[in-house]
Backbone:
């Protein structure tokens, strides 16, 4: 973070227990992240990993993580087998809204032996409409449903997306990366819906955090896109993507 010039990072705990085995329970994972927040209170923001299928237990854990541990949001991992807009989750979302915290929901591609159907961005739409006070961030711009994710963000004032995992695209196919950001800027009438993300350390061998940040700062619209009439992102646009938008969404 210091090398990349990153002031503050969101740490995401995961509740993976409905689909995977691991050495740490979901509560243990949340406690682990809480320990880091306590050690470095000025550098990290915590999002609790909670599967809403846990019902009342999920609400109790949410209240513990926000009230006792100081978390500022919830990470949802639908790839473990649920649709985010399941109406049985509404008591959980009501409490999220009451507590004034955000949701980051995985959308798009998922690991082997998981079902991508749960990750389609459209399943965020109903939650966003029914709970307009919750800021919802869709991870990974919903790739491969990228245009769908952008359309949802353009439609719903409380929906955003991050560009985590797009390091691969920036390095291998920068034209596609720039075209996606330009589409988002046009559809959303600005870059205010685009948040930096990294999925660190998964893509560290593709681009380090420093190279990821520097790559965005140095973005120049490729000549083929300029010929199509697409304009450069302004320096202010880049500053918003690199942190200004996140500070507003997370109410920092």
Residues:
């Amino acid at each position: 973070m210091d090398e990349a010039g990153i002031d503050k990072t969101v740490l995401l705990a995961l509740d993976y227990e409905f689909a995977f085995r691991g050495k740490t329970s979901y509560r243990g994972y949340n406690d682990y992240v809480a320990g880091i927040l306590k050690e470095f209170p000025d550098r990290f923001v915590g999002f609790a990993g909670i599967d809403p299928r846990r019902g009342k237990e999920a609400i109790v854990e949410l209240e513990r993580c926000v009230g006792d541990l100081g978390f500022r949001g919830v990470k949802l991992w639908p790839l473990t087998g649920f649709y985010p807009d399941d109406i049985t989750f509404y008591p959980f979302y009501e409490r999220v809204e009451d507590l004034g915290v955000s949701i980051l929901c995985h959308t798009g591609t998922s690991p082997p032996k998981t079902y991508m159907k749960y990750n389609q961005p459209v399943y965020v739409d109903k939650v966003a409409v029914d709970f307009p006070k919750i800021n919802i961030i869709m991870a990974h711009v919903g790739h491969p449903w990228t245009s769908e994710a952008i359309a949802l963000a353009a439609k719903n004032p409380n929906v955003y997306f991050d560009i985590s995992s797009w390091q691969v695209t920036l390095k291998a196919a920068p034209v596609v990366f720039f075209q996606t950001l330009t589409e988002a800027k046009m559809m959303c009438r600005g870059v205010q819906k685009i948040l930096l993300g990294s999925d660190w350390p998964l893509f560290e061998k593709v681009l380090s955090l420093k190279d990821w940040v520097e790559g965005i700062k140095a973005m120049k619209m490729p000549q083929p896109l300029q010929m199509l009439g697409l304009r450069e992102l302004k320096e202010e646009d880049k500053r918003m993507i690199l942190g200004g938008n996140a500070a507003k969404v997370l109410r920092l």
In short: The beta strands are 9-12, 44-49, 73-76, 102-105, 136-138, 159-162, 194-195. The mean pLDDT is 95. Residues 9-249 form a domain with the TIM Barrel fold (CATH 3.20.20.140). The longest strand covers residues 44-49.
